[in-house]
Amino acid sequence: MSSAAVEAARRVVSGLREACATPATRLADVAAALAGEMEAGLAVEGGSRVKMIVSYVDSLPDGGEEGSFYALDLGGTNFRVLRVRLAGKEARVAERVAREVPIPPRLMSGGDATSERLFGFVASALAEFVADEGHDADGERQRELGFTFSFPVRQTSIASGTLIRWTKAFSVDDAVGEDVVAALQTAMSKHNLHMRMSALINDTVGTLAAGSYYDDDVVAAVILGTGTNAAYVESADAIAKLEPSQLPKSSNIMVINTEWGGFDSPCLPTTEYDRALDKESLNPGEQTYEKLISGLYLGEIVRRVLLKISSRCSLLGDVGGGTELRTRFVLTTPDVSSMHHDETPDLTVVAKTLADRLNIRGTSLETRRMVVEICDIVATRSARLAAAGIVGILRKIGRGGPGDERRSVVAVDGGLFEHYAKFRRRMESTLEEMLGEEAAARVVVKLASDGSGLGAALVAAAHSQS
Questions:
Q1: Active-site residue identified among 48, 55, 115, 150
Q2: Active-site residue flag, 174
Q3: For the Hexokinase N-terminal domain, which residue ranges apply (predicted)?
């Protein structure tokens, strides 16, 4: 390996490190900018790229809920139905039963894909699940359902929302602009399924509910997985865009779904790789914050850096000689994590990943160390920016500052946080750096799994009319 090749690669890595730098001053600017965008989004509809969607969830479960509640989680090619039996503060979740159902592709797009057929299929599976569960544990009590619908909706109440557009593999044209809850309710009636829709939520709001069920001090929830988002508990009188008739009647809180993935600011540390990725994406110019943080993109950023190195020198072989370096998204975040955590003396995990994923073989130990360094730079930027976002939310609601003695809990779900240990440690250490050791000790970040399932049932319980 020539010294010139190593030097050329080093210049690329050095440039990456400089462009991804997140010193404390920059992170403070990111937190302040996000808090400002949140304010703007609460003031007027469409006033910010951070949408600040009002969820109409004005009460959260506290652990005292009792009874059986159902949840429907629709967000991909499979959907889940659940029944959760809650037994009060002593036993909490006494029972949880779930079933996953694949959706026939013809109902997701194409000539057979209509709103009536799609929601009819969902209602049929739900009715079958309820029947298989046998008699209701609550006797004559009306069954209540929480509906997690992971597509963009314009919500108008706790249990209604019109579909803005489909994403992922779905294209059911006649459902766009329609109330998805009404469509499902109609389908359930046709299957003689007597169930009240108590709540329409997304997975971030569900994570907040799941977290608050076990801990009264939860003030926010963050998704750090394939995508990223955050929800938090806001004072109702701070939401200027709400009409008086839309304000909660029995509380002064409202859960806000921030949609913080759309946050953008000049203070965000973007690189040439991020700009190229954005330009080639399905949504150029949008979801800037998400593209810097979430699991969908970290592997792709690392791949683009490796591609540039291969164009400058021969450390990774000939880019035109059979490698997969030009294949977009061939490198995943689990790949990045496994290489980043490789502690073998010869970095054999890195060597295997490069061979299996990119068809790059025969790399030197020095080259493999460089790959680990690139993973570290990209993941560290992501973790530190995620921490800055959390601090931005805490600042917005007056939490975590000097003199605040309250305990503030942030519930987090998603594989990036749960399975990527170095990401998680960097995020936690950055929170301490930004808040100070004393204040950070009162801010707890904890895992809250299955917000899209359990959380939906819990929101239904908190908004039960029985």
A1: 150
A2: no
A3: 16-213
